[in-house]
Specification:
Length: 99
């Protein structure tokens, strides 16, 4: 005696892999599995659409798997600016250390 995976009705099965009591139950279960998978993929898509760049907070493209947006990822100007700032800070420090 087995129990249907969909309606939980007890049934006799000739084959060991049968998990549903009837083709109707199998069909309904399959449909729900498809709907579930669709809902999950839709949720994933929604989540990926709501991702934001960790640096500037700009909305990330759904096709961008990185945590940073493209301009934060590779922006030579920004890199130069940051380097200059760091250099300036170092220079300032040097001046105060050696007047
Ligand atoms: Zn059933
Ligand atoms: Zn960014």
């Amino acid at each position: 005696m087995k129990h249907c995976q969909w309606c939980d009705a007890a049934f006799e099965s000739k084959v060991s892999y049968q998990i549903y009591c009837s083709p109707e139950c199998r069909e309904l279960a399959t449909k729900e599995k498809i709907a579930e998978r669709y809902a999950i993929s839709r949720r994933k898509k929604m989540m990926s659409q709501n991702r934001k760049c960790k640096q500037c907070g700009k909305k990330l493209s759904a096709y961008n798997d990185d945590v940073l947006c493209h301009s934060c990822l590779v922006d030579p100007k920004e890199v130069n600016k940051t380097l200059k700032e760091i250099k300036g800070m170092a220079d300032g420090k040097d001046k105060t250390a050696k007047p």
